[in-house]
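Table S2 (text version). Query chain:
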Amino acid sequence: MSRAFVKEGAPEVPVVVPPRAPLPAGVPNYVTPTGLAALRAEKAALERARADLDAEHPDASREREMLTGKLKGLIERIARSQVVDPAEVDREDVRFGATVTLRDADGTERSVRIVGVDEADAEASTVAFTSPIARALTGKRVGDTALLRTPAGDRPLVVLAVRYVP
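Corresponding structure-token output:
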């Protein structure tokens, strides 16, 4: 066999596993029950994908390394999870799991739900408890004004409603 097209000595590019959503060191991984279920479903899907890869493509080491890396990060995240069930919270102030209706300075009203870092999705109006808006709203009650610090300056947000729903 001709060796003309074989890259001998070329370094193999290491597999880079994309990081999960950031969670500051030492901070518990608060999740809703739905969030924990989603993490477990993701873990099961990755395990199935790795098993399928092992069965169908035993020589696919890079793909296997990627799946193994993703699984490792996910297993660590699940192990650090602390479930907070919004249905069991009886509060009038904003905490993890709250759905907060607020009004911006321009009069625009919107609702956001404070969830775990892996559950956050801007399109679904869910924000991580570590996000600037969640930190600004935490502890506020209906009628309070939170100041959201932005590069353009502080934005006042008036809390109109606080709900805890599963």
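Notes on Table S2: Residues 29-83 form one domain. The chain has two domains: 29-83, 86-164.
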